Protein 1
Amino acid sequence: MRQFTTDDLTAIMRGCAGMDQSGGFNGAELHVSYSDLGYDSLAVLEIQAEIQRRFGIPVGDDAMDAMPTPAATVSYVNTLLRAGV
Amino acid sequence: MTGRLAAITGIGVVAPAGIGRKAFWDLLTHGRTATRTISLFDATGFRSRIAAECDFRPACEGLTPQEIRRMDRAAQFAVVSAREAVEDSGLALDAMPDSHRIGVSLGSAVGATMGLEEEYLVLSNAGRQWLVDHRYGVPHLYGYMVPSTLAAEVAWACGAQGPVALISTGCTSGLDAVAHGAALIEEGSADVMIVGATDAPISPITVACFDAIKATSPNNGDPEHASRPFDLNRDGFVLGEGAAVLVLEEADQARRRGAHMYAQIAGFASRSNAFHMTGLKPDGREMAEAIRVAMLRARIGPADVSYVNAHGSGTRQNDRHETAAFKRSLGERAYRVPVSSIKSMIGHSLGAIGCLELAACALAIEHGVVPPTANLHTPDPECDLDYVPNTARTCDVGAVLSVGSGFGGFQSAMVLTEPGRVRP
Amino acid sequence: MSAAVITGIGVIAPNGIGVADYWAAVLSGRSGIGPISRFDPSPYPVRLAGQVAGFDPAALIPPKLIVQTDNWTHLGLHAAALALADAAADTGALAEYEMAVVTASSSGGTEFGQREIEKLWRHGPGHVGAYQSIAWFYAATTGQISIRHGMRGPSGVIAAEQAGGLDAIGQARRVLRNDASLVLTGGTDASLCPYGLVAQLSTGWLSTHHDPDLAYRPFDPQACGYLPGEGGAMLVAEDAGHAAARNAPHVYGMIAGYAAAFDPAPGSGRPPVLEWVIRAALSDAHVVPGAVDVIFADAAGVPERDQAEAAAIRAVFGPGAVPVTAPKTMTGRLYAGGGALDVATALLALRDGVVPPTTGVRAPAAGLGLDLVCTEPRPARLRSALVLARGYGGFNSAVLVSAAPAASGGGGPNKEKEAMTCGSSPRTT
């Protein structure tokens, strides 16, 4: 079964959210909210939409609340992948 | 100050469920909703598949085959509204001594997107060809690409040769365009301004872009009740379309010719939140500042405001933002003045809505009736003002405040006042 | 009433970025016209344009902002930053509601829009990105500049094709009179994507000539249309008293007069309005035609439009009475960016006492009656410059800029005094 990793998220954010091309997350940043990392609500929506497009999983309207941080995103997406939705 | 003031002497409307100002006012005062399943294109696969559409047949509205071919839907709305407004004003524009004193200020948020998208599909082989084929380009394609064409069409239709502008400040375009026209009359650059706003955004690209940010209501099963500003169960705005055009005249001139005046533009101000392109801070600070300055210019205080036409788009963020702005700018009066959103009935037609709302405000002054907020059944505890739920209200309407809030951070507020002694 | 002065200029043009680079290019006749490289133009009859070379948004604009905006806005954001820096305006220290942004837009984020429509129709609705809602629409640049610099005054966006840049400057002056003390104004454009170019082709006004030096030759006997370009300029317009109080480092000149009007509907038989607009702008500035030292022409390069413009200039000023120039031959027509760039160029001409050339034209067509400054710059004593712009559909606008009152040492001919009194008395029409 496919896993969603921090590297996947980083690649997506470099592509669509303007993350620095050499940038990534350090351990602490994974648990910081997107807004505190400097990503606005539109960027978060775009990240979610890109996950949906690439991984073929439905990211619902409640996703915004379910994945406030990069770590939460990774875990939420993996839950969806495991559930096979 | 020159002491010149702009008065509204004509109103023309193309709105969902009603072409013409009479049908429009009838819909609003009966609290009916014009929101429905999208019929303008097949919206299968879209998140939001509902909108408030105009039942608009251009040939029946007097447009010639040549005009219909040349004009995008938004331009058609604008020209039909402009003709109704000019006729309503009783002004013989052809007979005016100097057509350079007649101008146009038209607002539109997205211009001729519909025409642009339709032509793109032809030229790109339904999106498959990035290097689009110029051999299939229609002669008026550039007219679609530049939104200024909308204002040009109205100027041609009215014989205006004075200052002509297309104002495009997102969802405050309508309010800002009317304000621009009023400013030109006040400063003496024009004596008559044909002002208004038009938008026809119910096309796949615009519906999809609001889907992408989850701004529109996904309540596809119950479109008639989907636009629910200030209701706890709101879930986004419902896209609309239409146009409204007003004839503005210098008030003394209008009085001298015995024109019927609906209202006068008493004050306006706009501010930007410089915060976020789509986000709003909950404190309503910049909108409150716009309201404060608009009232100052109109020389009225909160106690004088007899009706507030809210932006009331039906997003949680907006409803809280502007409720806070009203409290901040009107103080205690905010709790007593009727506040309503006609977007509950005709949806949110982006730039056009600001002028449709001003038309409703002018008609509210004229008839002494305040239109309701439809679909308001479960009040949001955080929105604790009098939103005139579901039923229109008869009351004396002297001074009206209309506000708008737009992508880009724009916040605009206008005060209309009753024309006073010349009212019949 | 205090005058509206220009205290900052930010240029981002096909032949130069920043005032110094651009102005040096203009005076030396260095053109920014070249083959279109942004996409493969070979299927199209027009393959040349003015592209801004050496503009790297990634080095100048935060990456999170770049992904959310079209190239048109990237250009606008950088031009705005240059203008504010040139004006030494510390937006963090000035009153937030006293600073406004008024830009012109001609066609919005064309390339961004084409890309998103393509995604929609190739892949489906879920593939349209979240930024389409804020990148494509005409208000994107004003909104983003307002946010980036914390400018919370009465902002606006005007669309009038090529005339819009001058209308934005006229509106900036209006805002300064009523509502603010500093307005960032001007415009940029970038419609060089396949759909943008193809839409422009529909007018029949673009030049299909393939020689970059000869393709855009307004007023030339061989005039054969114009070339499009990208870029533009942003200006800091400021209340003269406000500029003086904060010791603004430059006062390039003032917005002495402005007027706009609209041509009659095609086929109406009524005359075009450009002559009326020129007279109205001069009247607004309380000056006579003799006070104008140079005219920056709209210069469509389309023979009948060139003739109409020349006729209006002749009617007001007399044949060959005032030097006329169109340095936009080096950039192409920049639509929303054109008016502000022409005004910026006019202000630099006033500053340095030199009329920049209309490159590519050896001599204007006989019968136009124009003293066109061709090929080489012409030194001249300049106090007032008239800038003209005509937008597709019938928009006609004129801005008169003149040397700022503070910069004048007094004395001089009467016409200069007249030029300096503008703004101090009510408009008489």
Protein 2
Amino acid sequence: MVERKALRINAAKTCQPIGAMYASLGIHGCMPHSHGSQGCCSYHRSHLTRHFKEPVIATTSSFTEGSSVFGGLANLTQALKNIFTIYNPDIVAVHTTCLSEVIGDDIPTIVKRAREEGVIPEGKLVIHANTPSFVGSHITGFSNMVCGIIKYLAERSGETKNQLNIIPGFVEPADMREIKRICHLMGVTSVVLPDTSGVLDGPLDGDYQMYPKGGTTISEIKSMGDSIATLALGHFTSHPAALALETKFHVPAGLLELPIGIAATDAFIQSLRTYSLDGVPEELETERGRLIDTISDMQQYFHEKRVAVAGDPDHVIGLVQFLVELGAKPVYVITGSNGNHFEKRLHEILDPVVPDAKIKAEADFFELHQWIKNGPIDLLVANTYGKYIARVENIPFIRVGFPILDRVGHRFYPTLGYAGAVRLIDQMVNALFDKKDRECPEEWFELVQ
Amino acid sequence: MSGGVVRTRSVETMISTAAESISVLPGRAASITTAGQSGPTLSCDKASLAGSVTQRACAFCGSRVVLYPIADALHLVHGPIGCAAYTWDIRGAQSSGPQLFRNSFSTDLQEMDVIYGGEKKLGRALRELINRHQPKAAFVYSTCIVGVIGDDVGAVCREVSRETGIPVILVASEGFKGTKKDGYRAACDAVYNLIGTGKTDDIPRTSINLLGDFNIAGETWIIRDYFQRMGVHVVASLTGDGRVDAIRKCHGASLNLVQCSGSMTSLAQRLEKEHGIPSIRVSFFGIEDMSSALYAVAKHFDDSELMERAQEVVRSELELLLPEIRRFRSALDGKKAAIYVGGAFKAFSLVRALRTLGMTTALVGTQTGDKDDYEQLRAMCDPGTLIVDDSNPLELAKFCIEKDVDLFIGGVKERPIAYKLGIGFCDHNHERKEALAGYIGMLNFAREVYASVMSPVWRYTPRRSGRTGVYPKEAV
């Protein structure tokens, strides 16, 4: 085992701007804008397209050698002019890159000047977030952009509205859809920000729409300062935005974890219940009951199974809690992102049940692989990049998180909520059974599991 | 229209309405022209307009894709994590041996490195990796930020090279230096450091290098096989299934075959100037271009036996291929295609390959074509074919609707747009899963085009089902 400080091998993270781009796509009528070299924008769009199998739009300041010396003022001004002239979005969400950060471009000043010069048409909005690639990860970038959206757009009219803000985190469109469904069942009016459902899971309708139907509308975002409370799902992706709303508009922040598995979903439903007149409807009670039923049917197969989990911090925390609920043993747990909360929280969860678990933030797949070589596991839960390890070590593997470049289901089926938990169980036991069916000796090959 | 598709008048009307509602970016009008019409030269080879949803990438991207298939070299990206993360094993460039190049190595620069410099970190990373993997050479890719914070990457490379005894080569690929094309040049400059350092005494006269083939889906192997059957020795392939030792001695070959117009031209020019090796620009896509490439090599060596063997290769391959192609052709005859690819030379081949399938090209564009390329496209395409440089999704969607195409040939970012419009798609970019080069590649191409164009799914899409009321949405 080699301690490495200077080197990242097979990263379990990527850079801030792609997270910012994803968050921006969750605003209706928004053009994400990458203030940097055009490769950044191209990479992010390609990567998101590979994951969502959907067109992903974004514009770029197309930095050149000149702009990297003289600053990106001219490029951004020109870009804004062109964007509004031809693509006509309601709002442009600018995020920076390593290059524009090092040069020191001051986005608010550039935007202010552009507005004074009449480059930005009346009624159109330009917001921004600083997302230097050499700080944090795509998770930081996502969080920074959500904070940016709120800082620029949320307002307080003085009259509290009977609605709840939900910050869902860096999750799938299907998850955002599921959160809205649960809120609806609970009789709670919600504003979900960002909301990429209907943006990155659109139907084939014969038309290419730059701005699909979905996304949180600007008027909804504006009204977030008037909401009764905010529920933020995930310490890393969502809590900062909820706290910003609390500080600025005194909207109380409910700081939750991603509702993955029983307890975390219970906590989410419990929080919604505070704001619901109707209480928990039978439909949700039944969903929960079906989840518990499924676990009871399958618990024997999870008992003491050694599992490795790699991915984004909020997801990993949720998945590990769920695995513990299933009776499995998460023995190796990593994220590529940084932040003390990750290791602290996971020790809280795992110390009582798996005291020798290895937990590490700012780790990578190479390190995880070394651990696995030294102590084998039964199941790997990670994004698509886990497949290299799964293949070499012949480990059952399920894909959860971002990116998933080689499967299709994540686009439709949530992993959040009670229904999402059933889907996770389905994927995990199938992976375990498939390996057994392929490899076990004839006499152990069973029809019924 | 063939294929028994009935289309209502109203749908057509609505299609044209939708197309009109999308306008072309004012600064872009000069980058669009039509074949068969006289007019000013197409404006191209320029930086993209700021604020455009350009499909282009950066210099780093260009360098990375050209060099990464060198399988026994170490490829270390010096920069923040993104540049390494997005280029981790995304192209299907295959290796028959080492798989080291499929890992992602990055110095993952942090805020402190940006302030104090990343040279020490780079040195440590290189030493550790070279020590563990014992590569034949190492490439260090410089990214935007490294160019700005002023790390002397070259000095670190020289130092580590002295210590470890392997070539450690700087790739000056800062993203802001330009488009992929500028990155190609940086890659050629980098790889040139290896050339001329190997022994060439065992290389026969009838020998070539393959430049600009990246062994996507095993294509280099297909091409190598044809030349082997002709009796032509392939010294090195740059860079598909590439090996450092082969590249070291590639200056001993008698001829360079340059495929993929943009990427290897500057290397071929240097090899000609400094080592006197002539080069021929070829393409391995499509029956005509593949055969021309084989014949051109035979002609170059002025050897009648070689020519006979080339003819034998072509004959035996076509005997297998043509009956199969005919099967697809009868269904595809008269269908229209749009092409949007990186390099122009590939576009030429695709126009011809589509003709082989009975299809016409209604729109053709590239990311990196130059003036001559576009003149050639204008000359070879049917009158009325639209020709565009450095396009964007809105423009491409508009033209596809206007021209009512049945197929789009492009890369990862164009695929979902085509599908949303209800148009078949063929990936002719680096994410293709099937070999498209050579004769077998033409068959794969035909099969892929057929599968997508004739897919039953289009029957259920608004454009081909004659359904009204869904289309179009309100104007953009």
